[in-house]
Amino acid sequence: MNKRAKEGKYKGKKLSSVCHFFGYQARGSLPSNFDCDYAYVLGHISMHILVAGLNGYMATVTNLNDLTNKWRCAAVPLTAMMSVKRHLRSPGAVPTGKPVIHPSPVDLQGKAYAVLREKASSFLLDDFYRTPGGIQFNGFEADVKPITLTVEDQDYLGDIEILQEYLEKVRSMVKPGCSREILKAAINSMSSVKDVLEVMSAPLNTELPLYNLN
């Protein structure tokens, strides 16, 4: 680079090398067929996000447990995954809000964790290798998916569509002209749903003081 600069063949900025530890990459296995398909689809969605001129979006794929041609692709705005945590910096101060991404803790009631608890004692002594060797790209085990994925049957975007369908049905049944009983039942039910959702989302939106007055 220095020689090319002296000869006038390079007029760019000075190049500085950066060292990086590739230990994890060296120890990791090759990507499986599922990993390759998943990464390819995410890259394809990202390309569409760029072409559309969008910013602040995340590529996402759901329904991964099905065939690849049935995967659901989407671009989700980061703001849709955020809530505002409010903090009190000092007594009497105006609370300041900080946007944060909704946490996604391990679902202790989910099927994947249930399988782990069921097999925990066996994992200590027995061998549970799906493929006793390296990653396979051909044959019976070539297209297997992660166990945590295969035991779950949840489809996030699909569930949202189901919710929208229910809301649309309620909207079609509860409109001017419906009976008083239907209207009261809808109000009571929706009020209960609202209360439950407020309780579930409260930790993400409550004020969190950073000091102790006691």
Automatic annotation (TrEMBL):
This is Pyrophosphate--fructose 6-phosphate 1-phosphotransferase subunit alpha. The keyword Acetylation does not apply. One of its GO terms (molecular function) is diphosphate-fructose-6-phosphate 1-phosphotransferase activity. One of its GO terms (cellular component) is cytosol. It comes from the Eukaryota. One of its GO terms (biological process) is response to glucose. It comes from Zizania palustris. The keyword Aminoacyl-tRNA synthetase does not apply. Keywords: Cytoplasm, Glycolysis.
